[in-house]
C-alpha cells in the first residue's frame, strides 16, 4: 500500500483544528488510537487510504506541505479559565495561519517599513519619586517614527498597514460572545509583523487591542525576556500612551462623568473603561474612584454605548489576490485547506480576484 510523505505535526494540527481527540480521530480513520499517537510523533507513515477516509476534513495537498510547529513568540491573553481544548483549537489556527504566511512570503515580496525595536531598559526614568519605565516617552518616539502628530489616531488600521503590518480580524467558530477569552495575538513571520484580533469584541476594544499588540511587537521581540517583567502591563501602558498622549488628554480626564466619558470615547476612539484607567494612570482620579467607575461600568463593559465604525483591514486580502495571480489561482489549492478551513482561518471576504503584482494600499 502506498505511503504518503508528511510530518506528524501536520496531522496533530488538523486534529486540533477540528477539536477531535486521538480516539475520535482513530475511529474516523479506521485505525487504533496507539497508531494515531505514533503517526503524530512521526514514528509511523500515514497510508493513502487513511487520508481518503478523512478527506472531508482536509484536501490531499495538505500533507504535501511542510507544516511545522513554529511555536513563535506569541502574545495573547491566556486566561486561567480557558480550557486545554480551547487552547488547542486556538493554537492550531495560529500554526496554520503562521505557516500559510511563511509560504506566501516565499512567493510574494511584501515591501514593509521596519518597526522600531525598543530596548525598554533605556527608558527608565525617575517619575514621581520612583524609578519607572517612561511609557509616555516611548510612545512619543513611536508616534514620531510613524509620522503622527498630536491628538487622536483616526485610523490605526490604515496607519499600521501602511507600514506593512498584516492585521486580520478572526471569527473563529469556537469563540462566542459569551466566550471571548482571546482578544488578540501578535508575532513576526520572516520579519513581517502580524496582528490577529478577535472580531467578536467591540470596535473600541479592538482599537486598544491593536495598540496593545503593537506594544508587544515593539517591546517584546527578543526571545530572552526576564520573567520578572510584566509584559502585559508594559503592553497596556504603551497602548494607553500611544493612543492618548498625556500632554493632549490629561486635562480632559478631570471631573469625570458618564456624558464626558462618552464624548471622549468618540473623540479618542477608545473605550470608556480604557479612558477611566488612563485617568487613573495619569493621576487625575484616585484608586478608590477607579474602583467606583469599574463597578459602575461593569454591566456595560461588554457592550458599551456609542460604538464607532472601524475600517476593515486590507493588506491580507491584497496579499492573497497577488498570490492567486502569481500561482494561476493555485495557492489555495496548494494549501490543501477545505472551504471550511479557509473561511475559518482567513475570513469569507478574502476571496481572490485578478490583481497587479505590486501591493499598494489606497
Automatic annotation (TrEMBL):
CDD domains: HTH_XRE. Pfam families: HTH_3, Peptidase_M78. This is HTH cro/C1-type domain-containing protein. GO terms for molecular function: DNA binding. Gene3D superfamilies: 1.10.10.2910, lambda repressor-like DNA-binding domains. It comes from Chryseobacterium pennae. It comes from the Bacteria. Residues 11-63 form the HTH cro/C1-type domain. Belongs to the short-chain fatty acyl-CoA assimilation regulator (ScfR) family.
